[in-house]
Amino acid sequence: MSHEVPRGLLLVISSPSGAGKTTLARRLAAEFALHFSVSFTTRRPRAGEVEGKDYGFVSDQRFDAMVAAGEFAEWAVVHGNRYGTSIAAVGQALTQGRDCLFDVDFQGGRQLRRQWPEDSVLCFILPPSMAELERRLRQRATDAPDVIERRLAMACEELEHYDEYDYLVVNDDLERAYGELRAVYVAARAARQRREGVARALLVEAAARRFPGP
C-alpha cells in the first residue's frame, strides 16, 4: 500500500532577543533533521557565523531587488537591519513533505501564517523575567551597551504579541523548555489534518479488501 506524501509542517519559533529561541531551534532541527530556513539579512555577520548556514548576508541593494521581485514570503526590519524568507525555497520544501523551522520575530511569524495558514504552527519562547533577559543579553557580550538597551526596549514590544502564537514556552530551564518545544512539534506532526491522507488511504484499502463484517 502506498500513501501520498504528507505536506511539510511550518514551525515558527519567535522570542525577544536573548530568550533562547535560536539555541532551542537549532537543537530541535538537529534532532529531527528539520529544514532550517536560512533567512537573508542586511546586517553584518557576527563572529563565527557562516554564510548560507546562519544567514544569507546581502547588501541593501540586493535586498531591495529581492523585495521588488516578490521573492520573500516575509521580511521585516529588526534592530535596524532587514531579514527575509524565500517563498520558493519554503514552498518547495513543504511540497516535498519536509518540515521547515523558522527562527523569526513576530512580524515574520505573522506574515508566514498569512502566506501558509494551513501549514503553520507558531511557538513563542518567553524569558522567565525581564531581569533575567537583561542578564543574558549582557552576559553574552556580543552587543554594545546601547544595542542591548534597544533590544530590551524591543522585547517589551515583542511580548505584546504573544497572543498571536499557538504555544508559549517559558525558558527558565533549557532542558525543560526544550522538552516542551519538542512536544509541540511532535504533537503538531500527528494532528488530524496532517494524517488524513494516511487515514483515507487505509479506508480505500479496507474497502478494496472487503473485510467480513463483525
Question: What would you say this structure looks like, in words?
Answer:
With 214 residues, this protein is α/β, with parallel strands linked by helices. The protein has a domain of 141 residues: Rossmann fold (3-Layer(aba) Sandwich). Helix content is 47%, strand content 18%. The chain contains 8 helices and 9 strands. The chain has a 5-stranded parallel β-sheet, with helices on both faces. The chain has a 4-stranded mixed β-sheet with strand order 4-3-6-5.
Strand residue content: 15-25%
Radius of gyration, taken over Cα atoms and rounded to an integer in Å = 20 Å
Question: How large is the count of helical segments?
Answer: 8
Task: Give the averaged pLDDT, no decimals.
Answer: 87
CATH homolog superfamily of the domain at 10-37 and 97-209? P-loop containing nucleotide triphosphate hydrolases
CATH architecture of the domain at 10-37 and 97-209: 3-Layer(aba) Sandwich
Shape: globular
**What structural class results from the helix and strand content?**
alpha/beta
Share in helix: 40-55%
Q: Can you write the helix and strand succession as a string?
A: EHEEEHEEHEHEHHEHH
Which secondary structure elements does this structure contain, and how are they paired or packed?
Elements: E1 10-14, H1 21-32, E2 35-36, E3 40-41, E4 56-57, H2 60-68, E5 72-78, E6 81-86, H3 87-95, E7 100-103, H4 106-115, E8 120-126, H5 130-140, H6 145-159, E9 167-170, H7 174-189, H8 192-209
Parallel strand pairs: 1-7, 1-8, 2-7, 3-4, 8-9
Antiparallel strand pairs: 3-6, 5-6
